[in-house]
Each structure stands twice: as structure tokens, then as C-alpha cells.
Amino acid sequence: MYRQFGLLIATCIAVSYGISSISQPLRPWWNDAPSTGRVVGGYEVDILDVPFQVSVANDYGHFCGGTIIGERWILTAGHCVDEDSYVALMVRVGSSRRSNDGQLLKVKRVVRHPLYDSWTIDYDYALLELEEAIELNEKFYAAELPEENEPVADGTLLQVSGWGQTLNSLESNEVLRAAYVPSVSQESCARAYASSGLITERMLCAGYEKGGKDSCQGDSGGPLVEGTKLVGVVSWGMGCALEGFPGVYARVAVARNWIRQHSGL
Fold first, then answer.
1. Rounded mean pLDDT of the chain?
2. Which of 122, 124, 214, 219 is catalytic?
3. 249 and 123 in contact (C-beta within 8 Å)?
């Protein structure tokens, strides 16, 4: 269901914004249940190295990532959920694997940003409130949150992690992966996606000019961090790890007051 709907949405966006001449589809929606892979061009990582990373799952398994920001709160992408989906949602915490280990916790409530736009993928934020608290400690902790509108310096090396597609059939699709990608200036990102006109101030771009490392389908909703500070949420992009097209992330600092309003964090 996710893949078929994603193809429809991506095609509509491409036609609407005049980018049908580009062969690769826009991605935020390829979050198959279960997903078939993870971060492109990355390396295997233990959950203790990114303890705030979680898998968002339903009855079919993992389909999106998320980030622990408090003992009862997960931040994920708005395109991963809707406010009626909490009944079937679970979050797997404390596991390097997407389908076993760790602990499965039920989602009590979904709060998607009221300005989320499924066509432009703007304001791509959602909060998941859990039915029970996560036991946090020095080794298993929540990600830090930035201040409202706190900037990310151009060229900052950021880490993205998740269980999304690797585009490499020889790599296991079970263990968490991560990659480092440099932040890209807003101007450069806007030029890269000039034909689509989709880049807004709620978006943060990261990736190498020649591609090769990126988040991909199935990573949606997962963390983009500077150290342990959550600066972005995996959102969308043109294909995965393509030359000239950095990954696009929902900029967390822009939504800081909204997060505080609903979670108290």
C-alpha cells in the first residue's frame, strides 16, 4: 500500500512542478511494510551509538524511523503517519535490528503538525505519544533538541541513521546503519531542486555533491543529528544518493515551539 500510494504521489508532484523530465522519482513515501533495506553508502551501527533511534512499525513490520526526544515522546515525519493511525502503531526501542530484540511500545496518540502539506512535504513533523514511558539512562538516552530557529552551519558533518534501502542487495536488511553527510546551504539546495520549487525554510539539506551517501526509502522519520542534537527528520529527496541531489530533512529548530507546546519538552 505504501509503495503504490507513494508512486502515485511522486508522479503527481513531478507533473505538477514540471520535473517529469527527471528520471528519478521524488521520495518520501517508499516505506514498505516491511522495508527492504536502509541507509545508502553507510555502515552498520550499534543501537548504543544512536540510542535515540527507534523503528516505527505496524502489523506488517517496520516502515519508518523515529527519534526519542523524551521518555514518552517520539518525533517522526508527518508523511509517515496520520492522527487516526495510532491504533495500529508501535515503536521498537533499544534494538539494532528492525524486526526483533528491544522493546515494542504502543502509541497512545499521534500529533501531526497542523501545517503539514502532503503535496509539498512541508512541515513534515509528527509527534508520537507512547502509552508507557521509556526507561532512559546514561547509555540509553533521548536526543537533545535545538533551540527555536537555531541554525546549522553550512558544511557541518551530520549523521543519519535508519533501516531504509541500501540499494545494495549484498547488504543485510536487518541491522541498523548510519552515514555521515555534510549540511548543504539553503541556496545550493534550492538550486538543486529549482525545477520542483519545493525547498522551504522548514527544510534542511545534507549530502555530498557527487552523491553516494544518503538516507533512502524506509529511513523516513529517522534522525539527522549533530553529535547527539537532533537537527533534522528524514523527509524526502530525488531518488537516493544521486549526484547533485542532497537529501532533504525537516528542520527541527523551526518546529521547536510546536514540539514544546504538545510534549512539554
1. 82
2. 124
3. no
Task: Give the pLDDT of residue 197.
Answer: 72
Q: Give me the phi and psi of 10, to 5 degrees please.
A: -60, -40
Q: Is 55 a catalytic residue?
A: no
Query: 262 catalytic, yes or no?
Result: no
Please check whether residue 39 is in contact with residue 164, taking contact to mean a CB–CB distance below 8 angstroms: yes
Q: Higher-confidence residue: 13 or 171?
A: 171
Would you say 89 and 128 are in contact if contact means Cβ atoms under 8 Å apart? yes
Q: Is 161 exposed, middle or buried (0-12, 13-18, 19+ CB in 10 A)?
A: buried
How high is the pLDDT of residue 83? 80
**Per-residue model confidence (pLDDT) at position 84:** 80
9 SS3 class = helix
Residue 257: its pLDDT value, please? 98
Is 214 known to be catalytic? no
Q: How far apart are the first and last CA of the chain?
A: 34
CB 54 within 8 A of CB 80: no
Determine what percent of the chain is predicted with pLDDT higher than 70: 77
Catalytic annotation, pick one of 32, 35, 62, 79: 79
Q: What is the per-residue pLDDT for 8?
A: 30
**Cα separation of 192 and 30, whole Å?**
21
Answer whether 139's CB lies under 8 Å from 1's CB.
no
Catalytic residue among 55, 96, 220, 235: 220
